[in-house]
């Protein structure tokens, strides 16, 4: 056999193997981190989209039931008028006087039992104001909590809509007195 051909083939094969191993060792993990971050971002976007879809389906079904209840448009107009009538300008000074600290408008953490993580869950379901939380059913609040996983199962949202309604109405002292009597939002 001709050694002149065999030696370059062996050197080429050894170089290819070493190149492959060095490439894996030095540069293989960077691409995976970028892909994993992109996947996590897309999964978060998907979760928000699903929450929005659920909210829209709920709104659609309530609008259909309102229209089919007989007076339809009149019911919807009166509900919008009622919502506009209950909207009260935010008075930060009154809130601070009742709670002894600065309160930001539509900060859901004012409701006893809601912390920043639960507020984030409600924001994902497009519940971003005290008025919208006040109009949310306890069952829907429970659904929002369940969307966050097992760590939120211990929370009981049965008073949250009512507390949020008091905040939206600017009844700060009444809300504070009630919260003093509550145990962790229950």
Q: Unreliable runs, pLDDT <50, ≥5 residues?
A: 71-86
Total count of helical runs of at least 4 residues: 8
Let me know the number of strands.
Answer: 0
SSE order, one letter for each helix or strand: HHHHHHHH
As a percent range, the share of helical residues equals: over 70%
Provide the structure class. mainly alpha
Mean pLDDT: 82
- Give the distance, in angstroms, between the N- and C-terminal Cα atoms: 89 Å
**Beta content:** under 5%
Using the CA coordinates, give the radius of gyration: 29 Å
Question: Judging from the principal axes of the Cα atoms, what is the shape?
Answer: elongated
Main sheet properties: none
Protein name: LSU ribosomal protein L21p
Keywords: Ribonucleoprotein, Ribosomal protein
GO cellular component, one term: ribosome
Organism: Tenacibaculum todarodis
């Amino acid at each position: 056999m001709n050694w002149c051909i065999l030696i370059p083939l062996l050197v080429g094969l050894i170089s290819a193997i070493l190149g492959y191993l060095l490439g894996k060792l030095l540069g293989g993990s960077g691409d995976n981190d970028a892909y994993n971050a992109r996947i996590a971002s897309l999964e978060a976007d998907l979760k928000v989209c699903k929450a929005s879809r659920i909210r829209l389906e709920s709104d659609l079904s309530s609008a259909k039931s309102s229209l089919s209840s007989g007076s339809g448009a009149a019911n919807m107009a009166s509900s919008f008028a009622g919502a506009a009538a209950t909207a009260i300008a935010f008075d930060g000074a009154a809130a601070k006087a009742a709670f002894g600290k600065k309160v930001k408008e539509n900060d859901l953490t004012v409701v006893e039992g809601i912390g920043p993580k639960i507020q984030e869950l409600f924001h994902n379901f497009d519940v971003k104001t005290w008025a919208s939380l006040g109009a949310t059913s306890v069952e829907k609040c429970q659904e929002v909590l369940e969307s966050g996983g097992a760590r939120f199962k211990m929370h009981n949202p049965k008073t949250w809509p009512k507390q949020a309604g008091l905040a939206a109405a600017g009844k700060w002292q009444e809300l504070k007195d009630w919260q003093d009597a509550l145990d962790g939002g229950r």
